[in-house]
Amino acid sequence: MLDVQMLTKRFGDKTAVENVSFNIDRSMMIGVIGRSGAGKSTLLRALNCLSDVTSGSITFEGQEITGLKGAARRNWQSRCAMIFQQFNLVPRMDVVSNVLHGTLNRRSTLATMFNLYPDSDIHKAIEILDRLGIAEQAEKRAEALSGGQQQRVAIARALMQDPQIILADEPIASLDPMNAQIVMQALRRIHEEDGRMVIANLHTLDTARRYCDRVIGMRDGRVVFDGTPEQLTTGAARDIYGAGADFSEAATSTEIETLDRSQTYAAETYA
Length: 271
Ligand SMILES: Nc1ncnc2c1ncn2[C@@H]1O[C@H](COP(=O)(O)OP(=O)(O)OP(=O)(O)O)[C@@H](O)[C@H]1O
Fold this sequence. Notes:
Elements: E1 2-11, E2 14-24, E3 29-33, H1 40-47, E4 55-60, E5 63-64, H2 70-79, E6 80-84, H3 95-100, H4 109-113, H5 119-131, H6 147-160, E7 165-169, H7 177-194, E8 197-201, H8 205-211, E9 214-219, E10 222-227, H9 234-241, H10 256-270
Parallel strand pairs: 3-8, 3-9, 6-7, 7-8
Antiparallel strand pairs: 1-2, 1-4, 4-5, 9-10
Helix pairs in contact: 5-6, 6-7
Bound molecules: adenosine-5'-triphosphate.
Residues 11, 14, 16, 34, 36-42 line the site of adenosine-5'-triphosphate.
């Protein structure tokens, strides 16, 4: 499906991604982990053709992605929707209109200028919001929603494109543990129910372990780990994060685990 070979991206003297290779042969949920500056965002942006690569190749279902221009590039970008840490919604615009923005790639300039959306698209947008549990927020301005709700609006906007791949760049980094969990569960469901591939940059080890089928660990632009969550031992994590023997996994964990523990505790207490 997705094949990345010897991908390199330099910014002047700085090599952000260096000779990265991996092959994903079926749709799965993949977590990319590593320290700040390891090259995770640069890799995702290259996959989405948001920035040109220095060398190497990316192919999806046999099609070369690197170097795509114009309409071919836009077509690829609509097949692999991107979600960002800061949601990138239009704050003053209502939720449904934000979601409908996901259809921009396939609408005429005139329709876009006059905000003309076919009824079928509006129904689809509401269905997707409903699926993500936020249909009742449809008429509100995006800025009036919580961070977790805004990220679900961003996921809904991505789903409007009916993408084969969802690329999520630190999708939960700005969220509290409860909302982080809701957003990760939404991404997991989208993968399982729709068969879409999800590739998410994650800053926490426990999130990658919990939600992903495969984890790619990056350090200084290179892939230093590629395996299942079970293979991601403390020793492997230490390599990825370049930490010493005193490495503590807790340092790369959010409070999600704590939250789960307290939920289990509550469940046990009230059982
Ligand atoms: N546009 C740019 N110009 C110059 N250097 C850049 C640019 N984008 C990224 N870099 C550098 O490339 C390296 C990798 O950055 P990147 O943002 O991909 O890392 P990251 O793993 O996503 O980190 P973070 O989690 O902090 O976003 C960093 O050293 C960064 O400073």
